[in-house]
Amino acid sequence: MPPTITAFKTSPDRGQGLARDMRVRWALEEAGQPYEVRLVSFKAMKEPAHRALHPFGQIPTYEEDGLALFESGAIVFHIAQRHAGLLPDEANARARAITWMFAALNTVEPPILDLQTARFLEGDKPWAAERLQLVKDRIRARLGELSVYLGEAEWLAGAFSAGDLVMVHALLRLRPSGILDEYPNLAAYVARGEARPAFKRAFAAQRAVFTGKAATG
Amino acid sequence: MPPTITAFKTSPDRGQGLARDMRVRWALEEAGQPYEVRLVSFKAMKEPAHRALHPFGQIPTYEEDGLALFESGAIVFHIAQRHAGLLPDEANARARAITWMFAALNTVEPPILDLQTARFLEGDKPWAAERLQLVKDRIRARLGELSVYLGEAEWLAGAFSAGDLVMVHALLRLRPSGILDEYPNLAAYVARGEARPAFKRAFAAQRAVFTGKAATG
């Protein structure tokens, strides 16, 4: 039985691939693993049946025989532990790749998500415009450091890993703001992630939910 | 050779244990592992020598023979993988405990850290007071869900795990705000964490940096 993941029934980003099921789809594609998708409405996400899988009433979740997980980072890590292709075998290299997963989720992504908060949850507040600049500058501080670290390297820690997968997806959300393009090596890094066949398959699959067309025949 | 971690030379919280070296100290104490501490000034944290260990110029870092890691979540996970006491052995139980580490870091902690941003980075802005209420309500939304999930359980996923360690430490930061005490089961959960002998040893060790008194003999 392939695992079942959950995704939004109605795409909040019109199929741009920004929802967090995209990370799980991408990881499963990198690992060459088939999966089933159950679509969940915004209303059903907050009801007890879904909360039993995800205490915070969000997507994605991940179910396989006898195991239910939530949190995209945890699910990507679970997939990466059990299948080849997302983490190096050598112990120290593996620890470094895992470090980048945590850095993406806990250091780089929070200021990026604050941009969404500033725009959508507080977009009608009198402080919205002035505060948006502060939020953007906090993002730039992190991206400047990441850009220096990456330099001319292709990926963050040797070969492509789950750390890159999570980082690329966190950075993708910045593209419409123009901030990503202020750091050409980071923009190229994100583009390398998007060019991976596994990314393309995952992107097409989530987009098909929005367009109503199945991704593959 | 025991590992070496880094911590702030000058405690920003006057030894209250809120800095992230506390998580690593606590994990090492739970695992019964000795460690060395190198103190780093705010200035030195941003210099190339420290950036070589931590691309974002923060603490903690972790060094052992041939391996250098950063990000408290990654370091706690590394310790938990290599020593008994922080993750269950059974594969599914282990995956669930790891899920709670990611949930603590990526879902629960970001709104809590936004309280710091609202108070300290934007405390002098005209919107500070009104926005603080929005930030607090977003924290309450998460804590309400966490409180329902925890219910009367002692820990989040069976026995105490690295997931609880990171969650308790993320929640601790809320105590001065009074928000934690709005959820009696979460306040008791945090108190259970603080009552652990390993927490107490770690707390005393970080406090000794502030008081200038060595924690032990």
Automatic annotation (TrEMBL), chains A, B:
InterPro entries: Glutathione-S-Trfase_C-like, Glutathione-S-Trfase_C_sf, Glutathione_S-Trfase, Glutathione_S-Trfase_N, GST_C, Thioredoxin-like_sf. It holds the Pfam family GST_C_3. Gene3D superfamilies: 1.20.1050.10, Glutaredoxin (3.40.30.10). SUPFAM superfamilies: GST C-terminal domain-like (SSF47616), Thioredoxin-like (SSF52833). Residues 1-87 form the GST N-terminal domain. Residues 90-217 form the GST C-terminal domain. PANTHER family: GLUTATHIONE S-TRANSFERASE GSTA, GLUTATHIONE S-TRANSFERASE-RELATED. This is Glutathione S-transferase family protein.
